[in-house]
Amino acid sequence: MLELPVAFVERTKLLLGEEYPAFEEALNARSPVSVRVNNKLTDYQPSGQVVPWCDAGFYLDERPLFTADPLLHAGVYYVQEASSMFLKQICNVYLKDAERVLDLCAAPGGKSTLLSQSLSSEALLVSNEIVRSRAMILAENLIKWGNPNVIVTNNTPEDFGEFPAFFDAIVVDAPCSGEGMFRKDSGAIAEWSLQNVQQCAIRQKGILEDVWQSLKAGGILVYSTCTYNKEENEENVAWVCEKLGADCLMPDISDFNGVVRSEYGCRFYPHKIKGEGFFVAVLRKQFREEQVHKGKSKKSRQPDKSTGRSVDFSKQMLFSDDFIVKEIENRVVAFQQKHLADCMELNSKLNCLVNGVQLAEIKGKDLIPAHQFALSKIINKDAFIFVELELKDAIGYLKRESIVMPENTPRGYVLVCYQQQALGWVKNIGNRSNNMYPQHWRIRMHL
Question: 167, 216 in Cβ contact below 8 A?
Fold first, then answer.
């Protein structure tokens, strides 16, 4: 039995009334395991029940050792809590015409990978995380997912004041007291306190206020938490409506038994649905006179200073006519032509960890293929030498061990794959090969 804080129990009993015993029983049951499938492998489908509000989401009967599955590392699927996949329904209804979208508190990447797949192909997603170490994990997960329409940044909410009325939609999955994660994370129980709830609510208001000017009038704000209390949920949404000027929109939940409608949003309880605790609200910014936030000026970092070399990657890239290739210092990077101006502007004012698809690194006269290119959805695999690995060798590759190529494999850079999914590059030098998998991504677990 979970030892829940007394104050949490008392407050949640007031919130749920006679439903509280069923809620507590659910907290002591096993958490469901769910994944969301990428479109890299069209015939990949886990054997399990489909998540009702996300057709790419699946419940698994048991939790496998995900680390030992090369398809996870190849970005074929993402392990994501089912309740938070409701963002797919919001995308379908409210974000289908959005051209610029900001996921403000995005690490580790569940909602960003969902957004990058669910938004229009014309959309540009900026995926941000303020904590550097978490931003690096976010970048890794989005590189593995492979969509080219994503920029990853490591900035504060205030930094986006440089972009007044820039975004059509902003998603704020706010840092919270984590009550909805109690049965998955015992640490969340240990850290919970009334003071922490109050501090989170204040912090959330600050985040929302800092980024509000970056949302266009008429734009959509999606606000979510993984907690139950009203201070961090309904009260914060009411504050946005009154203080910042927004109208609360109510998603249609008629097809989803167990999802609860509250005054300002939708609630997910573990005793009513197959998932963890979650709250989400959809707000539309009212048309008021825009107050342009004057952010601190940042030194411009121009990313488009080319080396002057001309490299033809057209045969190696799918949809090459949609991209423009630039040589930036020692990197060769492909940008979607329709997003080029935005990519350049964002790079000049923000700390971008991923901007465009890096195709190669330039070392002297040599071009070394980039790992991001291997995992991207724009690579033309048939333009490269590629080798299919068995499970044992695929795991060895992901551990950054040396992999022996089959006889008669040509020397040079080879794309290694598992079940037709690219894992990365090796440099075949004959009797052995140099493993080029990123050092900081390697599997450290003993398998």
Answer: yes
- Which of these is catalytic: 226, 266, 352, 417? 226
The span from the CA of 425 to the CA of 361, in Å, is 13
Beta strands in 207-338 (DSSP E): 215-225, 246-249, 260-261, 266-268, 278-285, 323-328, 331-336
Percent of the chain with pLDDT over 70: 95
Report DSSP letters for 211-226, one per residue. HHTTEEEEEEEEEEES
Asked if 352 is an active-site residue, the reply is: no
Asked if residue 52 has a cis previous peptide bond (ω within 30° of 0), the answer is no
Q: How far apart are CA 339 and CA 132, in angstroms?
A: 25
Closest CA to 41 of 54, 56, 52: 56
Residue 22 burial by CB count (10 A; 0-12/13-18/19+): exposed, middle or buried? middle
Instruction: Return the SS3 of 5.
Output: coil
Buried-exposed string 307-344: b where 16+ CB fall within 10 A, e elsewhere = eeeeeebeebbeebeebbbbbbeebbbbbbeebeebbb
Contacts of 323 (CB under 8 A, 6+ apart): 148, 317, 334, 335, 336, 337, 357, 378
- Find the length of the chain: 447
**Could you read off the pLDDT of 169-203 as tens digits, one per residue?**
999 999 999 999 999 988 899 999 999 999 999 99
- C-alpha torsion angle, residues 420, 425, 428, 433 (rounded to 10): -100
Between 270 and 1, the more confident residue is 270
Rounded-to-integer distance, Cα 213 and Cα 223, Å? 16
Region 384-447: CATH code: 3.10.450.720
Question: What integer best gives the mean pLDDT of the chain?
Answer: 94
- Give span(s): CATH 3.40.50.150, the chain: 6-285
Q: Which fold has domain 6-285?
A: Rossmann fold (3.40.50)
Residues of the chain with CATH 3.10.450.720: 384-447
Burial (Cβ within 10 Å: 0-12, 13-18, ≥19) of residue 80: buried
- Give residue-wise pLDDT tens across range 112-141: 999 999 999 899 999 999 999 999 999 999
